[in-house]
Write a structure and sequence with these properties.
Number of domains: 1
Number of strands: 9
Shape: globular
Bound molecules: 3-hydroxy-3-methylglutaryl-coenzyme A
Largest sheet: 9 strands, parallel
Strand order of the largest sheet: 2-1-9-8-7-6-5-4-3
Order of helices and strands: EHHEEHEHEHHEHEHEHEHHH
Strand content: 5-15%
Oligomer: single chain
Number of helices: 12
CATH class: Alpha Beta
Structural class: alpha/beta
Length: 303
């Protein structure tokens, strides 16, 4: 059997949290449904953060209520604190993601507290979720650079990864929030983190601001990572990282991985259509090169 990479689709959360326009809940639900139907095994659905901080996802409970109970995909949601966890569980979430940063300044801007304070706040959230049998992912932002501080030391990232993993996270996602990392740095950081967290529990989360995301994923896959985050049509950015573009496009990642002979379970043509659909709905450019190329080929061949 071919080696498999699990793609974690973050478009409905990481993508839509950064849209200026309000996307109706029904459209978010339809996006999630279409993504799951493409064969994506994990589609992050929404986020139970403070609606004052991220009003774009204030309808999180409504979105969760609209998810097909027979969906084949897992649908984790973001939670920043105990209140978020309670809201998420009440809305039916069975899988959650907490988030911290490797940069003090970003931690304050994103969660209004220091790194240590955020870890203190998250420990009981992780423990409560895990005790209830929920799977917990831990995100770390700014792993390859910070919009406020510039360089971030790999040791700072490893320390947060260790803290989240030892607190009970099942998986740690390394976020290049401002898309500034290059393959050598990404590979080296992954190797450092794998000294503390088993490689199979590590995920990579690249934004494409500097055009390095696919190269970074290739380097990390070569290094052994088998979980990659991405966003359909390259939706997204980060409200607390000015100038950050969207996540690497899922269509591009799937094309890369299939070209390497790796399995994803994703139907790339269906995904390209979904990327086209949401880009049209949002009246924004489709930021997937592979998606655009495939759509052009499909329209020429009439499929
Ligand atoms: C962490 C806090 C809550 C601290 O924010 P705070 O203002 O310090 O919190 P607070 O506890 O003082 O609460 C302030 C108000 O928010 C309410 N509140 C508090 N919590 C919740 C909640 N869960 N749900 C609903 N309401 C909540 C709370 O009840 C209160 O309401 P008031 O009494 O004023 O009416 C805030 O900073 C926050 O929500 N931050 C989230 C920011 C965010 O969502 N950023 C984007 C996600 S991270 C990301 O995108 C990066 C990632 C993961 O993709 C990886 C990468 O690329 O780097």
């Amino acid at each position: 059997m071919a080696d498999r990479v699990t793609i974690v689709e973050v478009g409905p959360r990481d993508g839509l949290q950064n849209e200026q326009q309000v996307v109706p809940a029904a459209e978010k639900i339809e996006l999630i449904r279409r993504l799951a139907a493409c064969g994506l095994p994990v589609v992050e659905a929404t986020s139970f953060v403070s609606p004052k901080w991220v009003p774009q996802l204030a309808d999180a409970a409504e979105v969760m209520a609209g998810i097909d109970p027979d969906t084949p995909a897992r649908h984790p949601v973001l939670v920043p604190n105990m209140k978020g966890l309670e809201r998420a569980v009440a809305a039916g979430a069975t899988e959650v993601a907490v988030f911290a940063a490797a940069s003090e300044s970003f931690s304050r801007r994103n969660t209004n507290c220091s790194i240590d304070e955020s870890l203190e706040r998250l420990r009981p959230v992780i423990a409560t979720a895990a005790d209830a049998g929920h799977r917990v992912r831990g995100y770390i932002s700014c792993v390859l650079g910070c919009p406020y501080e510039g360089e971030i030391s790999p040791a700072a990232v490893v320390a947060v990864a260790e803290a989240l993993y030892s607190a009970g996270c099942d998986e740690i996602s390394l976020g290049d929030t401002i898309g500034i990392g290059t393959p050598h740095a990404a590979r080296t950081l992954l190797r450092d983190c794998a000294g503390s967290v088993p490689m199979e529990r590590l995920a990579v989360h690249f934004h494409d601001t500097w055009g390095q995301a696919l190269a970074n994923i290739l380097a990390c896959v070569e290094e052994g990572v088998r979980i990659a985050d991405s966003s359909v049509a390259g939706l997204g950015g980060c409200p607390y990282a000015r100038g950050a573009t969207g996540n690497v496009a899922t269509e591009d990642v799937v094309y890369l991985l299939h070209g390497l002979g790796l399995e994803t379970g994703v139907d790339l043509e269906a995904l390209a259509r979904t990327g086209d659909w949401i880009s049209t709905r949002l009246n924004r450019d489709n930021n997937s090169r592979a998606g655009r190329a495939l759509l052009a080929r499909m329209s020429t061949s009439g499929t």
